[in-house]
Amino acid sequence: MESLSMTQPKSRSLHFNVDVLLGMVFLVASAVFLWELVPNYIEQPGYMQHPLLSPRFLPEVMGWIVLVLSLGLILSGLTRQVGNSQERLLKDVPFAQYASIFVALVVYGFGFQWLGAMVSGVAATLLLFAALKVRRPLLYVFAVLFPLAVCWAFISGLNVPLPSGDLW
Asked: How far apart are CA 143 and CA 122, in angstroms?
């Protein structure tokens, strides 16, 4: 004879949370970018023999990456149950940490032309690491080396000129 269980089977329900909202915003932004901005505002030279050399290639790749990641964010937001631990985690973060992350964004965004790509990238990464209270000194070395490596890859590998800075 089968024993009757008093527990109900767990069913997955759909939940609408911040992840779903952000995923939808990124989905719309990437769709506009892929189907409106890139085709209409980035010209394809007629003499391009290889599509990887086209100025449209990297923007299209990044647009598709954002589109796929936004779909993943929407799906994970719909199927994941938000518990008290996530709500408590956001409440325990001090305002100074949010402010320093915003300052890092401002330094990178507005300092890109004035300080140059390398200096603003390193400064913004160091500010983000400090804001997130990274304690390992080796990671701060990577915070300096990674933006420099990305700038070197763009300048040397992809032949994309980056601003060297008006301050220098």
From this structure: 7
